[in-house]
Each structure stands twice: as structure tokens, then as C-alpha cells.
Design brief:
Layout lengths: L9 H9 L16 H12 L3 H13 L3 H13 L3 H13 L7 H12 L4 H13 L7 H12 L4 H13 L7 H12 L4 H13 L7 H12 L4 H13 L8 H12 L4 H13 L8 H13 L3 H13 L8 H12 L4 H13 L8 H12 L4 H13 L7 H13 L3 H7 L3 H20 L10 E2 L2 E2 L11
Antiparallel strand pairs: 1-2
Helix pairs in contact: 1-3, 2-3, 3-4, 4-5, 5-6, 6-7, 7-8, 8-9, 9-10, 10-11, 11-12, 12-13, 13-14, 14-15, 15-16, 16-17, 17-18, 18-19, 19-20, 20-21, 21-22, 22-23
Length: about 475
């Protein structure tokens, strides 16, 4: 859970209780605090006036004096103040002025939420959805988001849309998701604007409309929303939604999102450097740096691309089959088909420090084949026809070869053309060529460097097998 600022309540509390912060300033220019007013408020706080205690907590928060902020918030909380209880809960979440404790945070937020305080309801819902301070409980999370959203709390409206969209704590319902995203989006919430754009791009419960998607992406992107900036950039790359095709604008937007550390933008900008697009000077080194940033955040496509660059020794990287295998495994474990296929190839030939294993190779080819990955379907067909890693089964071999051919595999189409005897000769010739390829340091890996928008630019120059 990322730290959430305690200042979330400052403006609300002061505005509600004192009609604004102007009472703290000596004149209208607000150039300096009126310390005499602050002293008066502090005196009231010491006398047990709830509103004054909350303001004192808020003042200390604004000066990052969290220890004193916690003291005053706790005094208000002990008197039953929902605002004070929420501030105490957030102090425990962030470890500000007190040792971090999600258990205590949940306890205090629950006290405030039971008083129908929307901010606490929202914060408590987050804790239930993230399993902080107790078990993950999407049903409870949905309940508290609903209560906060019912009070018009914009963050909860968007969060409720997310839960409907993903089917967490409630039956999946895209129409309800769109309703809640729209409620928050029309209030200017950037997360909701981005999410509503996604619904239009995907056509979930609304007619697929990239023009409408662009409208909402742009609203969010203009507020600095990294996901929307990236989605908008991807549409500029292909010229959809009424946008002109522009790699230059795509690069600009990716750079804005990369500055915020967004993994998908790092991956896609790396791709632009690979092929020198959008006015960028082609740079394998910069591509590798960006792929690593995204890979370190767990992005499976970036992990695969970085693995390919290690296998080729590009971008200033020392060639390392071992590092290639490690990165492919990370991505394969996330279910990424290209990585599963490539790791399967490495097992088939005992590369990257892996013990040669046809059984492991067949397993990985099957995982990728089940995702309609044509190269994996072809290899699995070969394995069935030759009995490598699986029982020999010509019927299964034909099934996978037909799937691969339908998916565009030229090797599978060649396999299907001759008679059975000619097929066996063809397979034997292919195995000889594969062995020769390994000796020539060409590992039969799929060298296509991909972005989240798909494979860009075809095969890596100088890579692959002929």
C-alpha cells in the first residue's frame, strides 16, 4: 500500500469547521500566519474543543510535524471525532508520528466509518481490498466503497466501478462499471476518466468507440495520468480514434509517463528506441535501460525483451544465456506465451545452464500453444510426431500442426503438404538444421521484441534463424 497523505482532511476539516483557513492569517494577502490566532486555537484545543484539536493536528501535518499531529488527532479521536479517528488511522497506515500498524489503522478507520464519514469509509475499503490489517475481503471492501460512493465521494465512485469491472466483491457487471466511472469522470477524476476511456476502447457495455476513448484519455492525460498518457500514445502510434498517426506525439506521451515510472510506457518507449521511431536516435543501450526498468517492475513483455537482448549481447549487455533463461522464466511464470515458448526452446537444447529436458520443453510449448502461439503449436506437433517429451501420437501431431498452420506457421504448412513418409524425412531434415543452428549460435528463439500493443517492427535485425 502506498503512503497516503494525512493532508487529505486538512482542507475539508478547516473549511467545514472554520469556513476556511483565513482565520489563521493576519491579513488578506496571507503572507504569514497570524500566530495569535493559532495560539487562541491551541488554547481551545487544550480545553477540549474538538474542532480546535482537528485544526491543530492539520497545522502540524502541513508542517510535517507528524508526532504532534498524531497527539492532537488522537485527543479528538478519543472524544469520538470521526475526523480525528480517520487522521489517527491514516497515521498508522503511513507510520507518521507512530509505529506503522495496519491492524490499528483498520480499527480506527472502522470507528470513523461507522459514523458514516466518507473518507474513512473509502480508506477502510482500500484496506479490505488490499488485505492490510487482516484478511482480504472484497465483499467488505465493496460495502464500504458503496457507502462512500453513496455520499458522492469521487474516489469511491471510481473504485466501485473497478470492482464491478473486475467482479471483485460483486458479480461482474460492465454496465454498472461504466455508470460509476462516468459519475466520477464528469467530476474530473483522472482515474475514472482513464477507466472510462478503457471501457470505450474495449467496447464493454458501450459501443466500441475510439473517438470517445480518446476524449476521456486526453482529459486524464492532461492531468498527468500515466496510464492514460500511455493509452493515448498507443492510439497515436496506429492513428485511431480520429488521431493522426504520429510516432513523435507517441514518444512525447510515453516520455511523460516514463517520468512517472509507469512500466508499460517504459516498455513501449524502449521499443521506439529499438527502431529509432518518433524522432529518436536508434539506441539499443537506451532500449535495454528502459526494458530493465519495466522488467524490474514485473512486466512480462519487458522481461522477455530484455532476455532477448541478453541472448544477443545487445545494448551494451554482456551476452548471457543464463540471464536470458532467468528472465524468460520470470515472464513464463506470469503466463506470457512468447517467454514460455522461448524457455521451452532453451530446455529442448539445454541452453542457459538448464538441464536438457524434452518433458519440460513440451510442457512449456503446450502452455504457449494453448494461447494460440503458432510456433509453440508447431514445436508441440513435432514433439508428438517424434515422441520427444510426450508419447508419440500422430493424431495429436496433426491437430497441433493444423492449428499452427492456421496461425500462420510456414513450417507447419510445409509439414502438412507431403505424404507421411515425406513428413518424417522433413522432420529429420529440420532436426539436423536445428542442431546446426545451435552450433552457429542461433537458438531458434522468437526474437520478436514486443510492446503491450503487439509486436512492433518485425524481427530483431541480425537475430532469429534462417
Amino acid at each position: 500500500m502506498m503512503a497516503r497523505p494525512l493532508s487529505i482532511l486538512i482542507a475539508i476539516v478547516i473549511t467545514l469547521i472554520y469556513g476556511g483557513a483565513s482565520c489563521l492569517y493576519a491579513d488578506d494577502n496571507k503572507s504569514a500566519p497570524d500566530f495569535s490566532s493559532i495560539k487562541k486555537i491551541e488554547k481551545q484545543a487544550e480545553n477540549g474543543v474538538l474542532s480546535a484539536q482537528i485544526i491543530m493536528a492539520s497545522i502540524y501535518i502541513s508542517h510535517k510535524d507528524y508526532s504532534n499531529a498524531y497527539i492532537w488527532a488522537h485527543k479528538a479521536a478519543d472524544q469520538g471525532s470521526a475526523e480525528g479517528q480517520t487522521l489517527v488511522g491514516e497515521s498508522y497506515i503511513n507510520g507518521y508520528g507512530v509505529a506503522q500498524s495496519y491492524v490499528d489503522a483498520r480499527k480506527w478507520l472502522l470507528k470513523a466509518a461507522e459514523q458514516n464519514f466518507a473518507t474513512a469509509e473509502y480508506e477502510l475499503a482500500i484496506m479490505y481490498s488490499e488485505g492490510k490489517g487482516g484478511e482480504t475481503d472484497y465483499a467488505e471492501s465493496f460495502k464500504w466503497y458503496s457507502r462512500a460512493a453513496g455520499q458522492g465521494y469521487v474516489g469511491a465512485e471510481n473504485a466501485l466501478g473497478v470492482m464491478y469491472n473486475e467482479g471483485h466483491g460483486v458479480q461482474q457487471n460492465f454496465a454498472e462499471a461504466v455508470t460509476w466511472f462516468r459519475k466520477a469522470a464528469v467530476k474530473g477524476d483522472a482515474n475514472a476518466e482513464s477507466n472510462l476511456g478503457e471501457m470505450y476502447a474495449a467496447g464493454h457495455s458501450v459501443q466500441r468507440d475510439f473517438v470517445e476513448a480518446v476524449k476521456w484519455y486526453r482529459k486524464a492525460a492532461d492531468q498527468g495520468h500515466a496510464v492514460a498518457q500511455t493509452d493515448l500514445a498507443e492510439l497515436y502510434e496506429i492513428g485511431r480514434g480520429g488521431l493522426p498517426k504520429s510516432d513523435v506525439e507517441a514518444v512525447r506521451l510515453y516520455q511523460l509517463a516514463v517520468a512517472q515510472g509507469y512500466a508499460e510506457a517504459e516498455l513501449n518507449l524502449g521499443q521506439m528506441y529499438v527502431y529509432g521511431r518518433g524522432g529518436l536516435t536508434r539506441s539499443d543501450t537506451e532500449a535495454a535501460r528502459l526494458f530493465r526498468l519495466a522488467a524490474d517492475q514485473g512486466d512480462a513483455v519487458a522481461q522477455t525483451n530484455l532476455g532477448i537482448m541478453y541472448e544477443a549481447g545487445r545494448g551494451g549487455l554482456t551476452r548471457s544465456d543464463t540471464e536470458t533463461a532467468r528472465l524468460f522464466r520470470l515472464a513464463a511464470d506470469q503466463g506470457y506465451a512468447q517467454a514460455q515458448y522461448n524457455l521451452g526452446v532453451m530446455y529442448a537444447f539445454g541452453l542457459g545452464g538448464l538441464q536438457k529436458s524434452d518433458a519440460n520443453a513440451a510442457h512449456l510449448f503446450r502452455l504457449a500453444a494453448d494461447q494460440q502461439y503458432a510456433s509453440a503449436q508447431y514445436n508441440l506437433g513435432v514433439f508428438y510426431d517424434t515422441g520427444r517429451g510426450v508419447p508419440r501420437d500422430h493424431h495429436q501431431a496433426m491437430i497441433y500442426m493444423r492449428l499452427a498452420a492456421t496461425g500462420g506457421s510456414q513450417s507447419a504448412r510445409k509439414y502438412l503438404a507431403p505424404s507421411h513418409r515425406q513428413r518424417i524425412i522433413y522432420l529429420e531434415r529440420q532436426e539436423t538444421q536445428q542442431s546446426r543452428s545451435i552450433k552457429n549460435n542461433c537458438s531458434l528463439l522468437d526474437w520478436s521484441l514486443a510492446s503491450h500493443g503487439g509486436i512492433i517492427g518485425g524481427m530483431w535485425a541480425g537475430g532469429g534463424c534462417n
